[in-house]
Amino acid sequence: MSELRFVHLGFGGDAVEYREAWQKQREVHAARFADEIPDTCLLLEHLPVYTAGRRTEDSERPLDGTPVVDVDRGGKITWHGPGQLVGYPILKLPRPVDVVAHVRRLEEALIRTAADFGVRTTRVEGRSGVWVLGDPVEERPAPAGAGGLSLDFDPRVNDTEFDPRLNGPEYAPSNAGQRREDRKLAQIGIRVAKGVTMHGFSMNVNPDNTWFDKIVPCGIRDAGVTSLSYELGHDLGVAEVLPVVERHLRDVLEAAEPQPREVEAESVAPARA
Predict the structure, then answer these.
(1) Which member of 5, 42, 214, 230 has the lowest number of beta carbons within 10 Å of its beta carbon?
(2) Which pLDDT band holds residue 152 (cuts at 50, 70, 90)?
(3) What global pTM score does this model have?
(4) Residues within the annotated binding site for substrate?
């Protein structure tokens, strides 16, 4: 892949409103499609905002009517805000684009970033993003008020409509670390238009993760969220993580040799005489 250019849109007191960054993505996307600029990754922090991808269900949105920005990326609902490093890699890839391979490359860069800070992460089959795996079920603490019952009695196991937002803080996504469950460190949601990628990833560095408790993050009811600071047990700033993310994105994306997605040829029935 060609050299990757990084553009910083704003951090901290200069955090960027979501719609402003979305418009900037469109402008950069059009310029990249026209080969006016090289592959470009926008990096920033957002002001607090909930965004919903195309697959978001009504039951996953905030119950109190908090506004949500509906966007044209894949995936479901998530939150962006201070303490979270957001990246929008806008890359031209061979068509038809292998979207899964692109997501895997982003995951790899973020897994390497977490490892550099001493946090072991991985992928979870069927769930995009970067995860800290929880303890085996039998070793996890029982939820508060469960009377010492095994987590085999966890209502989420068999109730597909279980809503953690209505069942107290012991089931809140932000408390997944205390429950020693699987918890997501970085979210990924993308869109591809005309062979050029948009949207991207967000990595939780030191945000207030209780923002996630108003929604069903990424539509996942049986896991939660975490941050680098929580896993490390001490505060870490976005400014410290930013150059590490850049280095690994550059290493992974520039070294990649993307291939078009394989398309199976449709069988054609022989014509009848």
Answers:
(1) 5
(2) low
(3) 0.91
(4) 73-80, 200-202
